[in-house]
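Chapter summary example.
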Amino acid sequence: MDNMRERAKWGAALCVAMAGLAGCASTPRATEATTMFTATQTTEHRGSDDLLTAGLGIDGLRAMAAPAFADPAHPTDAERRRRALWNNWRGIADLGPLGGYGILYGTTQAVPGREFSAQARIDGAHQPHRVLVQVPDGFDATKRCVVVTASSGSRGIYGSIAVAGAWGLPKGCAVAYTDKGAGTDYVDHGADGVEVKHAHSQDNPEADWGRHVKQAAEFALQSLTQAFPDQAPFRFDNTRVIAVGISNGGGAVLRAAELDGDWLDAVVAGEPSIDAAGGRALYDYTTQAALLMPCALLDLESLPQSPLSAAGKAVGTLRCTSLGITPKDARATLQASGWTDAAMRAAALSVDFDLYRAVAVTYASAYGRYGFNAHPCGFRFGAQNPDFTPRAATDVERAAWWSDGSGIPPGAGVNIVDTKVAAPDFTLPGLQCLRALWDGQGADADRVRAGVAQLRANAPRAGLPVVVVHGLDDGLIPPAFSSAPYVAMAKAAGRDVRYWQIRNAQHFDGFLALPDYGSRYVPLLPYVYAALDQVNAHLDDAAKPLPVDAVIETKPRGATPLSAEHLAIP
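The structure predicted for these 570 residues follows.
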C-alpha cells in the first residue's frame, strides 16, 4: 500500500506539473511495451513555436530575463515549456556575443515538429522517470536516425536540448530524452518542505541511468511508429541510434553502452561523471572539495590571483581557521588525492556557487535511499524567509518550479535547509557530517557507500564505437577521477574507445559569459558536436575514420571573438 501511495504521489506530480505535455491518460497505448510507458501525450510545435527554442531563437535565448508568464501563478503549458527551454539552453551553452554559438558552431534554427512524452518505469523502481521524443517534420525517412540523450545534472526533461537537440534535430533525426529519474517535478509539503525526486525517490536512480537511456530509445521507436505509420515498423535493426550526453548525462550514456543487445550504434560522452576502476567516486571527491577547496584556493603561491569572489575568500579564511590548516596544507592534501592546479582554479566557480554542498546533500540522500525529511545529516529542502527559517512556498514560486528549477536545490525559490548551521563557519558542521558518510563509521555511512557501490561502470559492448571528450581544467568532475580511468579500463578490456582531452576547457560552458571565464576557457560543446559529426560520418561510410585519441592544444580567446584557431578541433 505504501508503494502504491508513493507511485500515485509522483505520478500526480508529473501530471500536475505539465498536464498538457505529460498527459494523464489512465491507460497506456496498446503496444508491445504497454507496461513500460504510461501517461502518453502528443503536442505540435510549429509556426511561432518550434522544437528547438520554442520560437525564441538566438536573440530570445540571449535575453537576460526569462520569458514571462502572463499570469505568474497560473502559466500555460506553452509558457512553461518556453521558459524551461530558455533556462536549459542558458544553463548548458555559451550564448554570449563573443562565444561563437550559431556562427562558429551549433545552431538555434527553428525546427517544426511534434513531441511525444510519457512516463516510464524501471522494473522494481518506486517512481517513474520522464521520457520525451522530438520528431521533426523534416525527419529523414531515407536515413532513419534517433539521437538518445539524458539530461545533465538533475535537470528536467529538456536538460540536454543544447547537446542532443541542437545537433540532431536540424539533421532530420528524432531526439529522445530522459530525465533519468531526476528532474523538476517537485512535491510541495507546505511549511514541512519540498520533496525532490532525485533526492527522495528512494530508488538510487543513478544505478539505473543506463537503463533509463535505453528506455528513452525504445520510446523513440514507438513514437516514430505512431508518427509515421506508413513507414513502420521502426526497430533497432533498421534505425540508427546514437547516444550523447554531458556531465552525468555523459555518464548515463556510458552506462547504456554496457547493456546487452545490438541496439546502439555509437556513443559520445562529454565530461562524463562516471565511476570506474582506478578512479574516485563523485561523492568522495565532491565532499572532500566542499570541505577543503575554499581554503586551498587561498594558496597565493600557486594561484597569485585567487579566482574566488570576496565572499568565497571570506569562507576560505574561516574554513582554514576552523580546520586548523593553512591554504598550502589544504592544497597539498587535494593534490595528493589527484586534484590538479588547473582543476582547482576552475573549482572556484563551484565554491562560489556552493555547488559541492548542493551535490553532496542531494546525492547522499539518493545513494542512501532516504525519503522525504529523513536525511542522515538533517538537511531538508524548502522555501525560506530572509532569516533562513522555513516557510511555505507561494503559488507563484510553485508555478515556476518545473521551468526554473535545476532538479537539485538551491534554485527556483527552493533552498537547502541546514539544521546543523552554527557560527562562525556556518556550513562546516553539515559538511563534516556529509563527509563522514563516506569515510566514517555507522549504519548511515554503510548505507550511502552501498548505494555508491552500485554505480561502478563496466566496459562498453564489444565493437561499439565510443568517444569520450573532457576538458582538462574541469573543476567539478576532474578527468583524473572519471573519464581517464574509464577510458583506461575500457581499453584494457579491448574496447573501441577514443579520448579527446581538451586543454583550457572547464565544466560549464554556460558560465563562459562571465568575462574571466570566457577569456580563460574554451567551450566544450564544439568538441561534442565535432565528435558526433565524425562518428556519424563513419557510420555512413566505414572508410571515414573515427576520432583518434588526442590532447587538443587550444588557445583561450581573451577578449576577442571565438575562432576556429582557438578551438583547434582535429
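To summarize the output: Residues 4 and 126 are 9 Å apart (CA to CA).
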